[in-house]
């Protein structure tokens, strides 16, 4: 059976029953049909439970299909519940870009899925659309302000705020707007990014309250004036309207796994162009209501995990208790150019980073595919044992929670035996340049960093505006630990090139654009859109 067939055959429980497992009543949730709900933020104050433990699921450097972080995250929370532990997953909402592109959905796979998967992978509860409209309201107000006399003196060649759409559409990377004469405004170059790369998405994911959400929106920098002054959303007096559009989106969503265990889904930033983690609010809510929260951060440990620690945990006051690194035979063979043993060096680097840089106890989860042989699995297990890394053969895709019990037991032991004192990877008092250099040298293994001439002006602004103490959001390819997609395995002898810096003052970080990373993906030659369909009864097919 395909993922969607398994999901559609699932025996779902009414979302009120799932909420009850968390000690929530119908007054604590706002139902979106029988199987979806939003959870009211006051639950965070009402729950008197001590915080649960936080487990981060990350991965080795993935193939384009992904190596199973969402699948293992969902399977692990299913397994913990099977062991009698009250556990919830906290994951990101899928973007329509990959759903209609190549990668497919992000609701797990096999017998480790969140349901209703077609809702979750399509419009869900509308958060992605709300985030997009909130973002584009700012864009419309910028052009309207300029068209109405430009009292702020916005330099139309230095507007850094783009427009968004939640779709992979390369044709929108560089556009000209305002054509057709005076009645239509004024012509200027503009650009679209995919909604999940929007600073509004980051703000929604990194806010601890609606008050903080509004404050962050006020601080969004949209560009500079002709005198070089930073122009912020508050200068346009629209932060209230932008926040109002997010009145429902700010509330975390509650759904369930195939085994009727609770899952929070909230926010969906990619981890190559953005910080790659689900929201602080959903994670805090899950921690308040359960004993073990399993969350995931996008792509590999050099991207999502680093930003989970240095951005999400730092801004949310969160402390992870254990990390799971998902490894697969196919990805390791990919890194070894067909030679699994050679590809193990990629796993080696990620184990080193998590153990010695992020200082977290870890378990390697071998996400078993039906094509894997016993010899291949044994080779990975032997490598981990020699490395002193705990390892578990994870079969949650094929067996659901039952296939994740060994992993769950090893994670519980790793948490109980954890003696390390968690700390962020870098000192926030370093300069932005020092933070970038520390990440590139120690996490990526670079010999050094080259800053393109275009970054100098931004560094000057960072210094002049007192922004040095912000965290850094590294934006780079997910295909390599370096900034060069062609460098597989554990690259050495390379430098990282920072081509651009962007001020995400609202979200609270500086984005460092490394290599040729772009924030509007394109569709593949054969997009998944060609196989997705709906029948007369409204049954969707082709989603995966
Ligand atoms: N063990 C497995 N066997 C077969 N397919 C799998 C397995 N694990 C994951 N997949 C599939 O691989 C794709 C990526 O899995 P996903 O969990 O979304 O990865 P990630 O979250 O790391 O991107 C999905 O289509 C999923 O169904
Ligand atoms: O941002 C990317 O996330 P995945 O690794 O789940 O595709």
TrEMBL record:
Keyword Zinc-finger annotated: no
Record keywords: ATP-binding, Ligase, Nucleotide-binding, One-carbon metabolism
Annotated transmembrane regions: none
EC number: 6.3.4.3
Residues annotated for ATP binding in this entry: 63-70
Source taxonomy: Bacteria, Fusobacteriati, Fusobacteriota, Fusobacteriia, Fusobacteriales
Name of the protein: Formate--tetrahydrofolate ligase
Biological processes, Gene Ontology terms: tetrahydrofolate interconversion
One GO molecular-function entry: formate-tetrahydrofolate ligase activity
């Amino acid at each position: 059976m395909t993922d969607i067939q398994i999901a559609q055959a699932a025996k779902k429980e009414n979302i009120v029953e799932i909420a009850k497992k968390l000690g929530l009543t119908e007054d604590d949730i706002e139902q979106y049909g029988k199987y979806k709900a939003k959870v009211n933020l006051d639950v965070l104050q009402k729950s008197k439970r001590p915080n649960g433990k936080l487990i981060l699921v990350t991965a080795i450097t993935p193939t384009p299909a992904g190596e199973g972080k969402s699948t293992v995250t969902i399977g692990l929370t299913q397994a913990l519940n099977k062991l009698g532990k009250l556990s919830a997953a906290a994951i990101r909402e899928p973007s329509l870009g990959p759903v209609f592109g190549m990668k497919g959905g992000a609701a797990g796979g096999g017998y480790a899925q969140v349901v209703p998967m077609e809702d979750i992978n399509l419009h869900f509860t509308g958060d992605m659309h709300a985030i997009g409209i909130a973002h584009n309201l700012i864009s419309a107000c910028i052009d309207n302000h300029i068209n109405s006399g430009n009292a702020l003196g916005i330099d139309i060649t230095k507007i850094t705020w783009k427009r968004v759409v939640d779709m992979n559409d390369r044709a929108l990377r560089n556009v000209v707007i305002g054509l057709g004469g005076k009645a239509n405004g004024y012509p200027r170059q503009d650009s679209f990014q995919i909604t999940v790369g929007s600073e509004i998405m980051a703000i929604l994911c990194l806010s601890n309250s609606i008050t903080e959400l509004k404050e962050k929106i006020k601080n969004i920098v949209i560009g500079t004036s002709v005198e070089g002054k930073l122009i912020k959303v508050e200068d346009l007096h629209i932060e209230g309207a932008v926040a109002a559009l997010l009145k429902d989106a700010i509330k975390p969503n509650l759904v369930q796994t195939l085994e009727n265990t609770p899952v929070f889904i909230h926010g969906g930033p990619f981890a190559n162009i953005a910080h790659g983690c689900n929201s602080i609010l959903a994670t805090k809510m899950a921690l308040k209501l359960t004993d073990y929260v399993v969350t995931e951060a996008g792509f590999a440990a050099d991207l999502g995990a680093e930003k989970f620690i240095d951005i999400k945990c730092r801004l949310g006051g969160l402390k992870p208790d254990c990390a799971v690194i998902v490894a697969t035979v196919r990805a390791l063979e990919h890194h070894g150019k067909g030679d699994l043993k050679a590809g193990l060096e990629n796993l080696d680097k990620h184990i080193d980073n998590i153990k010695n840089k992020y200082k977290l106890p870890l378990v390697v989860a071998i996400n078993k595919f039906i094509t894997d042989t016993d010899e291949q699995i044994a080779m990975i297990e032997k490598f981990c044992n020699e490395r002193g890394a705990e390892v578990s053969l994870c079969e949650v895709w094929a067996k659901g929670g039952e296939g994740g019990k060994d992993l769950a037991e090893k994670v519980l032991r790793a948490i109980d035996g954890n003696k390390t004192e968690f700390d962020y990877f870098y000192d926030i008092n370093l300069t932005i340049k020092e933070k970038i250099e520390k990440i590139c040298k120690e996490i990526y293994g670079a010999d050094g960093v080259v800053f393109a001439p275009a970054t100098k002006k931004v560094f000057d602004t960072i210094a002049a505006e007192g922004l040095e103490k912000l965290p850094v959001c590294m934006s780079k390819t997910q295909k390599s630990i370096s900034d060069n997609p062609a460098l597989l395995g554990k690259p050495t002898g390379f430098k990282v090139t920072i081509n651009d810096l962007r001020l995400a003052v609202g979200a609270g970080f500086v984005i460092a654009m490394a290599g040729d990373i772009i924030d509007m993906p394109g569709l593949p030659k054969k997009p998944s859109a060609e196989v997705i369909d709906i029948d007369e009864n409204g049954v969707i097919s082709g989603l995966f």
